[in-house]
Records
---
Amino acid sequence: MSDTDYKALKAKAISQPLVEHIYTADPSAHVFDGRIYIYPSHDIDAGIPFNDNGDHFAMQDYHVLSLDGPDAKAVDHGVALHINDVPWAERQMWAPDAAKKGDKYYFYFPAKKADGRFQLGVAIGDSPAGPFTAQPQPIQGSYSIDPAVFADDDGSYYLYFGGIWGGQLQQYRNNRYDAQYAEPAADEPALGPKVARLTDNMLEFAEAPREIIILDEHGQPLLGGDTERRFFEASWLHKYNGKYYFSYSTGDTHFLCYATGDSPYGPFTYQGRILEPVIGWTTHHSICEFNGKWYLFYHDSVLSEGVTHLRSVKMAELQHDAQGRICTLTPYRD
Ligand code: FUB
């Protein structure tokens, strides 16, 4: 695509990058102490060619962004955690998230160990902007990528995670790894994301991770071949009018979708799309309420003119209709 096309896309975009001095992606947004904090991946070009394993996503640190409100300029708080300060991690710091409990902030992140397998880590800070100090070991029993924390009204915290292909989820069954395991066949139930309640100190799983089932309109699990609806990566959970909304990316078909349920453990029933495909292969998001309005935080690769591992975090208002359905957003106007 030519320069002119990207200029046109920038003009048609429903929102612009929150920061342009660095590339950021996979935004996990929360309101802490009345301010919007965004925990993104920090994209860099490490010179690694594109492959289906995602080796070109070779990120080495995390920055935290914050905003006074939707129309305010985003502040970059600098490096909050670097891979050199995580004893167990070797490479690829992918999509993170954070939670507040008491007066501490807990930062959750995936990274690959020297053996090439992803695990999830946690780091602790006194400020929502970091810096965060990593625990010496990954969370026991954790695997795959894309941790997302949900704080329920009863004071429980849940960690959602998982992603197929480069995220390695297809190599696990019943929380056990086997390199021989593969994605389910097209007519078998799709692999679901995982969820585990966190311990009171926020540092471990309080239970073995459970699989989340996403059902179709007939109450049947979505199938592996249903690639426009099945889970791929980018778990997120928000609660709206007492219902649990589980949202995720369909990866190779490039949609952000959601499903609803009555428990943080699911099952969830597929409801529809949140965001049509963006420029760039990946799509990843979070959903957060601020001053009575709901916002979608997402990313695209318009600023880098289509470089899929150089993405920019954006924010757009999200509407739930009178029945609680999310109104689908199209990232670029016609
Ligand atoms: O940023 C690296 C990976 O790309 C994330 O972990 C996935 O969700 C996808 O956005």
---
Amino acid sequence: KRVVVFISGGGSNMVSLADACAEPGFPAEIVAVISDKPTAGGLAKAEARGIRTYVFERKAYAGKAEHENAILETLADINPDIICLAGYMRLISGDFIRPYEGRILNIHPSLLPLFPGLHTHQRAIDAGMKIAGCTVHFVTEGMDEGPIVAQAAVPVITDDTADMLAGRVLTVEHELYPMALKLLAEGKVRMERGRAEFTPAD
Ligand code: GRF
């Protein structure tokens, strides 16, 4: 399966996906990395792996629709099977999602439906949570609310700072996302009537 990964920053999740895709027999290949930030550190990491990159800087476009349409035109040329949002800090509209519904994944650094949105680690700490974690979900029009594909949990440790917890969660994100992508690429999960449906393990 042909995968395009969207990033806005360091791209550590993109690197994990790229490394997984490089394993023999992995059912997906990353054919492009797209960023909304020309300064995204992940762009150099993608290029170092021979992955083609594209930058669509928001301020270069009159509005959100123009920005998304420019990306959609390039996507039409690339013709991906799957899109992985990985640290992509921009909401995508229904017009963008619809052509790819059921084929767009996102990784969010909380155990959804808890803590959608930003500052998830500090919020978990403030709430006195004893576990935290991350979620890979199908992207739908609502923010961070699509059907859940996979989750991983980590302990919240006494006196954790948000940065300490973020690092612990990021480590398991790097395991979780490739596993979730594999499920989708192999057709072992799909989105049907707004729900994630899993093929029973044989
Ligand atoms: C991290 O906070 C991660 O939890 C979330 O996006 C941020 C950047 O990730 N998914 P990455 O290193 O750019 O993949």
---
Amino acid sequence: MEKILITGGAGYIGSHTAVALVDAGYQPIIVDDFSNAEKSVLDGLQKITGQSIPCYEGDCNDKRLMERIFSENELTGVIHFAAYKAVGESTEHPLNYYRNNIFSLLVVLEIMEIYGVENLVFSSSCTVYGQPDTLPVKESTPRKDAESPYGNTKKICEDILTDHVKSKARLSAIALRYFNPIGAHPSGLIGELPTGVPSNLVPFVTQTGAGIRNELTVFGDDYDTPDGSCVRDYIHVMDLAEAHVKSISYLKNKTAPLYDLFNVGTGKGNTVLEVIRAFEKVSGKDLNYKIGPRRPGDVEKVWADTEKINRELNWQPKYTLEDSLRDSWNWQLALSKNPA
Ligand code: WQD
């Protein structure tokens, strides 16, 4: 069975990708330092997949650990998720973000080169677009100045991949520019585990629905959008996971080294208030929220042009916004019963 190393594989998107890889007949191998993940995720993965997914605990900046992993496993490819990803935190601790997010990619690329592992999928973000001038946003849209050090690390890592592949390295890589991942595995056994007060919308919505938070604040309703609240492209995490599996297959079948990048979104935008309405519909709850001031750094509206990934990776999203919110709510209820 072909082995795929998932760095940060116990995290939100990494764990769901592990499930999708097993479903596609691959053997995932996880490396995670659990700085932003719970060990209980491994139990959830065991229940879903029926196997104990091999997991190395540690930091993928640790060259000795990575040497051990690559020497103990013949890998077909690597999916590199491991990175710090909190936008606000990155502005308070930029050096931590630059060191961790960039150095970890360099370690992964160097060890891949030593062991002749040729296929890498990199976790990038639509944040590299900033506020696009035209929508839906295409991969060819020029990237803008990053809104945060976090976003800048994603741009720098994309540039590292471009230059490394151009240098005739044996590597082939795909960068996936995620839009807004939400939802959870339909089983309710794994999902998003925000630490502390969620900065992202959907976990804050479900925690408010569960009574953990008293009230959601909608950050602004005076934008130039259908109802004044910001627009985003919310994609189910299982659809996002499947895009990684398709990327690995695409890389395996390549005829020459390549570097390419793809938007991964639904291709549709929804406002914050639409998300609230959809949540109320699927949960049967009236959500307690108020309108507050805009959040600095927020872009007004962004959603993906998905023509390229549809065509080249033969990938289409399967879940709707309501499906995603239903699964997020199901996961929140499961968490309330059995805290992670
Ligand atoms: C979505 C919308 C908020 C919370 C960020 C990163 C991105 C990725 C996903 C890592 C916005 C509004 C939110 C709340 C609100 N992160 N909102 N009240 O900012 O689009 O993207 O997270 O990969 O890189 O930039 O996501 O969920 O924080 O916000 O009104 O309590 O919900 O203003 O319009 P965002 P988000």
